[in-house]
């Protein structure tokens, strides 16, 4: 058992396959054994200045994709971050415990701010990992299922938890552990198989979005970058493109990489890509049908999210009160 917390940003019209394989499938599996809380982290999405109308739509679509993947609101808490104000409140306390240099060492901030320039980069993007620590610590989270790209942010969450406990006394918060499943921890861009697949990729050609037209997805898989050899073999260092295709194939079909390698011995990259395209399309078609179903009734979706926010808030309030009290803030009456 133990508490699980994780979230994704509504920064795009669709989640991408890396989000699904790196995180969402783990979320769904962990519901059976853990007490799980899954969040659409809309406050995080504000760090990149989205259009307000677009953000609202994307927030619902992200929740609908969680549901379509199998997040079950009868077993797990599903809610929107901004509906529980304690996230932003705890983030302030944590930002006063975070070193400026410490935050500046986050590689995701360095990468994203380098692309946006110093005036395009918000202070919110800089403090993003601190808000993420608040998300996690608010719920006495034991385990955080994420992809490899979040490892450094998780390490900061752990450092901040330990700092809170040493400043304000043991048991102020629980120190969380990352839960990163190595087989699918990093799915790569189809056109640039040494960079991770990302919602905000500069070119869509290497991206598999869960809500893309299946025909477009099939075409992108058929045009994936491979290498000049002919052998279908899992070797991420020498053959990143082919290895990424095998990873995706294995994860979506439930087959092992060695069995795929032996099935495709002597066959060409074209055969592998064609079969993988079929596997991906067979997964996406019913998935998109379920998303359409949840999106067809926004008010029912909002009810699920409201009920989730209420349950989340009941858990968050005592944690925030404990931290406020131990920080020396005068109790509210
Ligand atoms: N390529 C990936 N392979 C495996 N896991 C991945 N995740 C993201 N990309 C991959 C995991 O999905 C969750 C999404 O977290 P997020 O929405 O906070 O954003 P992110 O990590 O920054 O992912 P993106 O898709 O690249 O979004 P943008 O472009 O908005 O920044 C996390 O658990 C992440 O590890």
Automatic annotation (TrEMBL):
Domain of life: Bacteria
Residues spanned by motif 'KMSKS' region: 196-200
One GO CC annotation: cytosol
EC number, UniProt record: 6.1.1.2
Gene Ontology terms for molecular function: ATP binding; tryptophan-tRNA ligase activity
InterPro entries attached to this UniProt entry: aa-tRNA-synth_Ic (IPR002305), Rossmann-like_a/b/a_fold (IPR014729), Trp-tRNA-ligase (IPR002306), Trp-tRNA-ligase_bac-type (IPR024109), Trp-tRNA_synthetase (IPR050203)
Location(s), subcellular: Cytoplasm
Keywords in alphabetical order: Aminoacyl-tRNA synthetase, ATP-binding, Cytoplasm, Ligase, Nucleotide-binding, Protein biosynthesis
Gene3D superfamilies: HUPs (3.40.50.620), Tyrosyl-Transfer RNA Synthetase (1.10.240.10)
One Pfam family per UniProt: tRNA-synt_1b
Reactions listed under catalytic activity: tRNA(Trp) + L-tryptophan + ATP = L-tryptophyl-tRNA(Trp) + AMP + diphosphate + H(+)
Record's keyword annotation contains Aminoacyl-tRNA synthetase: yes
Binding residue positions for ATP: 9-11, 18-19, 147-149, 187, 196-200
Binding site for L-tryptophan: 135
Any single biological process term in GO: tryptophanyl-tRNA aminoacylation
Stated role: Catalyzes the attachment of tryptophan to tRNA(Trp).
Assembly behavior: Homodimer.
Family: Belongs to the class-I aminoacyl-tRNA synthetase family.
HAMAP family, alphabetized: Trp_tRNA_synth_B
Name of the protein: Tryptophan--tRNA ligase
Organism: Cellulomonas flavigena (strain ATCC 482 / DSM 20109 / BCRC 11376 / JCM 18109 / NBRC 3775 / NCIMB 8073 / NRS 134)
Encoding gene (name): trpS
